[in-house]
């Protein structure tokens, strides 16, 4: 309590005086958006224009905010630009003081609608509403194949989620904007009401009279639904629908219908309407927040107010109601519309951000001064809205600020090469953000392809400073140079070792950037970037440094026997250390477990050679090492290095690692040097000579002469004769002359006996070629095409069969040249002439017959069964001819010398065969007839199957897999009717046996589907069981043990209600006998549970958590000790203090006493904790008893005592009071009351 002095200096205030209630008539205007004035919109309108303009707003609470304010990170403008690009509509976006977004979309009507949809998707948050609809009505909302649901989602622009058929929940979730959700819920309720078993009425009431039925804030409608116990669904104001639906009991529906029609008739008789012109920007004040002002007018005056939509240019507001009430409503409307005024201030858009201030500080200052005013920034204007007494003063302040910023701030544009933008911006905008923050300026870099300007905005001094810095940076960028220097990759680690210390030192010394390639690139190119002079200096320095490094890094590898490495190292490494120090080289030895015996020496060349001699000297002193030579022809040296020199390595390994050195290729020397122990050298020498002798034997060479013009006959087509005669039979290699070699010499290489044999055969062939003759045969020119068709296939065949003779037909087929030239050996020429004459004789005996095959079957025969056509005509040695339609028509028209004029009809022909249906077969008579018969046998037939439409999906298979399998397996065409036709006919086209097989397969599949469907229907028998929720935990069991056992034993599916579902319905699905058995098991469990003794105990809810313990450990231990079940109240239970104990009666009573004892113990701890927390302030510090001076409020809600929920005086029982307990024991006064006022 305050002392008297403090009370005098700080008098207490009444809570009602300090915090008066807000007037109910004032609506919240903070979220209402301004729409463009009519004058601005009229300018955009054109007569007969195809473009439309839409303006709409997204309230702040529904916006998806983009909080990025750094350069290059904002996404709002990018998103609008992307939508504009996709739809072709122009989009403008602005942000209001209340953080709501206003969009102006201009373009063709179709594009504007699509752009608006995408804008709402990207910028507006989606609400989520769930409604309860009877489970049996869900299928009606879905429609066939979900079509009705899809149409509903499309028409309302929402996402509607309906629970699965096996889910017991009846909640339907609707996601979308507020208006779209209301539309969707309205449609869903209409569908549900139509399907309801109760009465349903649909009445027509003109839209203007709906407000008189609903009343202000739906007061009359709610009252009517309550009195009649019905559900009445009236379309929202923005939905153009006159239909009102009523559902409920028949009597209530009839009563509600009559009352609605009575209101409608009365208002229709007494209502009149007037229209007043109100500027478009004032409409939002007439509407009010969430239409509150319209509701107030309807409530207070009984007059309905109709305001045109925001996207229309109409300024007329219509008032409708009784004549005597229109005047009062019009006055009310006028006061609301004139409560705010509007003024525009010209201000370039570039200074808007300056007026707004950093993070809105400046505009927030004005907002605090003029709380009832609203400031909005558009293109080059600032619009101010507010009460008349404040708007002039605010307008003057804004004009002064505009004038100040126009005088003090400037804008500069720099022309910059776009290639430098990335350097000016920096990584993630670091460089440009630093300039902006340090100098308090705005820097805009156009991101379009054709722009090369940078705009700087801010105070004149800061803009000049930033301009100077950017110009200096650009000058440096223009003077930058890049040079490449070649540095051996083995030297890169010298610069990059020790965390690149050497590299950093060089970069700091020359003020350049040095880039080494990645180790995986295997590149020697190093890049130097920087100013031209610095780059040149660094390049010169690195060139000299690399030259020195190359001289000091001369490398030689010396092979030393592994057993002598320890002698070279010496005791304690003395020998190797001495050599290193005296020669100034780096010597690297392989590891002890390394199989290599090579020692690497690095340093200057002369020093490396000295170190090498000293190491070899140690080896020679420690072992009997000698040098020897062996002479092997130089041309055989390459045979030792084939297959990665595996042969040479094998000889070294077999001979104790002896060193073998071949002469360099350019010397063409035969001398090979060997080094090692004498016995190893002798062994290696012998092996080298053996290999050389073997190679020598297989390299025997003989030369044969033949005229160059005969070489092609010796080689044959594609080298066929060489491969057949020489490679396969003799195993020799034939080399023909090439380049500057003697043109007549042919070389044969191989073993001696094979070479001799090949020589004899080659000379025999050459002799035969020399005896070549040339003869002619006369062939009628009309048969030439038969020989040269298919790339001369027949000519090549005759040539191969006749010892490779050359057959030449005349090149010019237009002349009557019948002479065919045949050149080759005499026997081959005579045989070829005989074969050609036989072919000509067969061609002269050929006839042509016609076969009627419908033109629609030609494609199938020539496409998918092309191989069958080829086989048929090839087997019977005939030729088919399918002419083009034009050729057939002309052929038919000119037969027998008659010409048929287009349009004439031969009346004598009863049946005209179309030329396009005729197939011609040419060949010998007996072959033509056989081919005709074979051709008719493969002509496709067509079969039709009557398969129920519902089976078509199973026959087609997922993604058409099964139907493709049929087509591929049986080589047929299968046509399944489209889904919209609902036809049962499936058509099969193909060869008779293939079509029949495909038909049998489909019929077999049909029988399988029928059998599986019958089994599926039996397996999906469903039954339900109502079980109180309190028994569900026992039915489930610990970890689902009980319920899983029932599922496993009876092979059924059991679905329990969700946690927040109060129905208690358990669903069982499976075969009927299994379902009934499982249901019986559950009923047995429920009966057993119902037979148990049950006791309800009142225990303070504040101690429940202590009794339950961590993860239920405490309550489980109590249940195990007393062998009972304890259930604590759920969140939705009406009494949170009731704890239920069930089990054996004696044990339940014992457990009850134990819980009451625990309650007394725990409640003391609760009281102590509450007292301790009451002594702490908001920061966790102990409160000071001394009262500090401050603003004192008496009678506030926080000063009132909280009710004691355990007291029966404040919360008396509705039942009888236990007389065995006194009022003192119950902790209450003798006179029960409902408790103090809160």
Strand and helix layout:
Layout: H1 4-9, E1 13-14, H2 15-18, H3 38-44, E2 51-58, H4 76-87, E3 90-95, E4 101-108, H5 109-123, E5 127-132, H6 138-142, H7 147-156, E6 159-161, E7 171-176, H8 178-195, E8 199-204, H9 210-214, H10 219-228, E9 230-233, E10 243-248, H11 250-270, E11 271-277, H12 283-287, H13 292-301, E12 304-306, E13 316-322, H14 323-337, E14 341-346, H15 352-356, H16 361-369, E15 374-377, E16 381-386, H17 388-408, E17 409-415, H18 421-425, H19 430-439, E18 442-445, E19 453-459, H20 460-478, E20 480-486, H21 492-510, E21 513-515, E22 525-531, H22 532-551, E23 554-559, H23 565-569, H24 574-583, E24 586-588, E25 598-603, H25 605-622, E26 626-631, H26 642-654, E27 659-661, E28 671-676, H27 678-697, E29 700-705, H28 711-715, H29 720-727, E30 733-735, E31 745-750, H30 752-770, E32 773-778, H31 784-801, E33 806-808, E34 819-824, H32 826-844, E35 847-852, H33 858-862, H34 866-875, E36 879-881, H35 885-893, E37 918-923, H36 925-937, E38 941-946, H37 952-956, H38 961-970, E39 973-975, E40 985-990, H39 992-1019, E41 1021-1026, ...
Parallel strand pairs: 1-47
Antiparallel strand pairs: 2-4, 3-4, 5-7, 6-7, 8-10, 9-10, 11-13, 12-13, 14-16, 15-16, 17-19, 18-19, 20-22, 21-22, 23-25, 24-25, 26-28, 27-28, 29-31, 30-31, 32-34, 33-34, 35-37, 36-37, 38-40, 39-40, 41-43, 42-43, 44-46, 45-46
